[in-house]
Amino acid sequence: MASSQIRGVKIAALRAVFFDFDNTLHDYSGAYARAFESAAAPMCTGASGSPDPTELRRRCEEPWRHTWQRFMARQIDDARLWTERSAAVVAAAGIPPNPHLAAAFHRAFVATMEREIRLFGDVEPCLQVLEALQPRLLLGVLTNGPWAIQQARIRHLGLEARCPVIVISGALGCSKPASAFFREALRRAGAAPPEAVMIGDNPETDIAGAKAAGLAAIFLDRVGAGWSRSWGPEPDAVASDLRAATAWVVARVETGTER
Ligand SMILES: [Mg+2]
């Protein structure tokens, strides 16, 4: 393990950079809003009491969050997740249960998501800088979600060929923030915890999870919310975009300077 001695503290040089996927590498929230409202439009008839697509999306936030929590707790599978979510959209539109309408919503939502997802503009320059540091540095994507959907999106965005380590919770028996999830990523990267950094937008799953497993962590604060101490262990850095995060990484690849 390459390392350096800074103020008496031995710090390992970085060998692995792990990125969260949704809202870190691609604009999940933007794509989700566009896909939901497009797919839900046929249910928004303009009749009295019928919500517009934005209002319908707002009404579905809580039931969709609830189904996601049950999915992540492995109480329901991928198919049930989408059956329940689609039925919730129909109900929130004020329409009696209608499996055909729900299935049509799901098909349209998934198809539109695939068209709408795109990498943030700072991803390509970040990857080019970090790829130039290979093979000393290994890149990875660590994401929670159904394996088939996340895998397809990662491939669609061209990340599969560029990031040798891809860990998707749906293919494991655990998810972020569990330390076992990060240990699996480290095993695939052949790196020790102090040799890796996690970059992500979620204080719990990305930052607290990585810190608990012994990795460094960079909180990606694209919206400028700042870091709240109530969120748990402090990240090693807060970056407003991936350019700032990349600069932090590059400085620590060769020298192992203090975090
Ligand atoms: Mg995220």
TL;DR?
Helices cover 46% and strands 14% of the residues. It is of the alpha/beta class. It has a six-stranded parallel beta sheet with strand order 5-4-3-6-7-8, sandwiched between helices. Strands 1-2 form a two-stranded antiparallel ribbon.
Question: Any overview of this molecule?
Answer:
The protein contains nine helices and eight strands. The protein starts with a strand and ends in a 6-residue tail after the last helix. Helix 8 links the parallel strand 6 (196-200) and strand 7 (216-220). The radius of gyration is 20 Å and the shape is elongated. It is α/β, with parallel strands linked by helices and 259 residues long. The model is unreliable at 1-10 (pLDDT under 50). Helix 1 crosses helix 2. Strands 5-4-3-6-7-8 form a six-stranded parallel sheet, with helices on both faces. A two-stranded antiparallel sheet has the order 1-2. The longest helix is centred in the first third of the chain and has 20 residues, at 53-72. The chain folds into two domains: 3-27 and 118-253, Rossmann fold (3-Layer(aba) Sandwich), CATH 3.40.50; 29-116, DNA polymerase, domain 1. It binds magnesium ion.
